Structures are given as structure tokens and as C-alpha cells.
Amino acid sequence: MGTLKAIAHPLRLRLYRSLFVAGVATASQLAEQVDEAVSLVSYHLRKLAEHGLIEEAEPRSADGRERWWQPASEGVSVRDEDFRDAPEQAAAHTAFARLLVDQRSELYRTYLDGRHAWGPEWNRAASDSETTLRLTAAELKRLNEELLALAKKYDDEGRAAEAAGDTEGRENVALHLYGFPFRT
């Protein structure tokens, strides 16, 4: 519950996402990205570290005063079954999920507002689609697992190519997939 509360803070979630994209960064670098004071960012980074979400990284410069941070794992996984028997925790889970949706929507709105700057190649590659499927819960679970595995395959290949020096044209790409039941 404490870990969920730690990351379910708007600034902490933005910092975690920025750090995840960067791989490693200092509080100063992250403060610049989120447009907040370094002291405030340092405080929130320490809170994330207290809950095992991030950890100190090997220094990347000779300046011993700089603290470098990195994600402590490959991501955060929050599952409904972790909260099913505790209503107060379920409320925190819902609040966290809503915060994720809000930040993901803001990220996409930022792209939409500035898409002209990306050029035709990126705009043709970007997608916005919705598909309505008729599935069972088991089929939806399997579909989600397969989509995540496919996304991870592409990420692994891209990171390997980048590590080999193939950096031309590579950008961070957000892929948001939602699969949920609804009734009309």
C-alpha cells in the first residue's frame, strides 16, 4: 500500500516516467524536465527510493555532489487481485489508475498539439485507433499478454540496435493500450 501511495502522486509519477525514459539522471536533470525546483525533486526522488521504486546509480561524472538515480526494476505492475480484499487499498489503486490515464492523456495531447513539428514520417507512423472486440475475460487476458510481449520484443530490438550504434531516427515512443469491458 505504501508503494502505491508513493507513486500515486502526480509529480512522483512524472519523475518516475522521466527517469524510466532517461535510464539514469540527476535531480537537476529531472527538475529541468518537469519544471520544478531541484530541492522539491530531490525530496520526491528520496520518497520513491524509500519505497524501492528507484535506486542510486553509479555516478556518471566526477562531481561527487551529484546523486544519480535509476529505476529499481523494469517497471511498476499493479494488479487488481492485489487489492480485491481491502477496499481502502482498492481506492488507492483506482486513484493511481486515474492518475495514469490523466498523465497518458496529457502526453498524447502534447503530441497532438505539436505534431506538425514531427514531420510526415512520424505522423504517418503514429496511430490513434479504437477497436471493439467480443471476448471472454480469458481471451482479453491472453490478448493483453501477447500485445505486451510484442511491444517488449520491439523495445528489446530497438535497444540492442541503439547499443550497437544505430541511433539515427530513434525517438521515445509511448504505446498506450487499454483493454476493458463495457456495456452500452
Automatic annotation (TrEMBL):
Coiled coil ranges: 126-160
Database matches in InterPro entries: ArsR-like_HTH, HTH_ArsR_DNA-bd_dom, HTH_MetalResp_TranReg, WH-like_DNA-bd_sf, WH_DNA-bd_sf
GO MF annotations, alphabetized: DNA binding; DNA-binding transcription factor activity
Keyword Coiled coil in record: yes
Domain of life assignment: Bacteria
Lineage per the UniProt record: Bacteria, Bacillati, Actinomycetota, Actinomycetes, Kitasatosporales
Domain HTH arsR-type: 2-92
Keywords attached to this entry: Coiled coil, DNA-binding, Transcription, Transcription regulation
Annotated protein name in UniProt: Helix-turn-helix transcriptional regulator
